[in-house]
Amino acid sequence: MNRQPVSSSRIRSVGWAGNVMEVEFHDGAVYQYMGVTSSEYRDFLNSSSLGSALSRLDKQHPYHRV
User: Fold this and answer.
1) Where are the alpha helices (DSSP H) in the chain?
2) What gap in Å lies between CA 28 and CA 38, rounded to an integer?
3) What is the pLDDT of residues 6-61, one digit of tens each?
């Protein structure tokens, strides 16, 4: 999956394809969040705090480390 760099103290890059959002953290860990719609992904990218937005997604979507 292609990820794009983001400006965040926790997150290095994010990507989305086929309702799966992939998040790479600054420590190198990569997680995939299942069932994330394109509108949820856009809302995530446009949020004022990616860390807070990711915490909300943690509660709404299953995820696993890649």
Assistant:
1) 38-45, 50-60
2) 24
3) 999 999 999 999 999 999 999 999 999 999 999 999 999 999 999 999 999 999 99
